[in-house]
Structures are given as C-alpha cells and as structure tokens.
Amino acid sequence: MKDAYDAVQDDWSDVAESLGDLDAAKKDGLRSAADGLKKAYEDLPGDTNGKDALTAVQPQLQKLNTAITEASRSLDCD
Fold this sequence. Notes:
This protein is an all-alpha fold. The protein has helices at 2-17, 24-42, 50-73. The longest helix is centred in the last third of the chain and has 24 residues, at 50-73. It is elongated, with a radius of gyration of 13 Å.
C-alpha cells in the first residue's frame, strides 16, 4: 500500500507541474481531491490491510477521478 501511495504522490507531482493550462477552479478541484486522498491515506491506522485501506479511500479516489475527468474535458487530451 505504501509503494502505491508513493507512486501516486510521484504522479501527482508530475500532474501538478502540468496544471498551467487549467483555469483556477479546475486546479483547485484537482488539488482538493488529491489532498483529500492524501489525508485519507495518512489517517489509516498502521495495521490496515490492503482491502480495508482501499475501501476506506475509495470515496476520495472517486472524487479524484471525477476531478480529473472534469478537468480533462477542457483540454485537448486526444
């Protein structure tokens, strides 16, 4: 779980560098969703197994997915 979290953090750093083409509202939405996922992960008890961790962070994953989908609609991502 930690390795997956670290990979997401690395990918988020790359995404954050590419936000220049988005308007402020979409940037804020992406940052908020990513921060929510980060907080949900950090709040997991240390002994949480992978299945329970995924269940716990699923709502934040969905919010991030929605924010990415909404943001990408305004870009030419073909």
